[in-house]
Design a protein that fits this description.
2 helices, alpha+beta, four-stranded mixed sheet, globular
Length: 93
């Protein structure tokens, strides 16, 4: 049986698409969304919980997506579509 649930990717900060602060942020956020969908659909991956952070302040499950020993979030960071999460959001504009 398949189980569906929403998660928040724990190891990255991505540009906003629903409430961007500028057009450039929205455009980059849309590119990041498309690329993440490509990465997720490229094959099996593991969903890992962090030891020290299970949920965000809104109760969403925080997880890291890993394939072949590499975080999918790290791939987005290496492509300039996200930043490594440092504990707080940074401006994109």
């Amino acid at each position: 049986m398949e189980r569906w649930f929403k998660i928040r990717i724990a190891d990255i900060d991505t540009p906003e698409i629903s409430q961007p602060h500028c057009a450039a942020e929205k455009a980059l956020g849309e590119r990041a969304t498309v690329r993440l969908m490509e990465l997720v659909n490229d094959g099996p991956f593991h969903i890992l919980a962090l030891r020290n952070r299970d949920k965000d302040r809104n109760g969403r499950e925080l997880r890291v997506l890993v394939r072949g020993g590499r975080s999918l979030g790290d791939i987005l960071v290496s492509e300039g579509l996200a930043r490594t999460w440092t504990g707080r959001r940074q401006p994109w504009c």
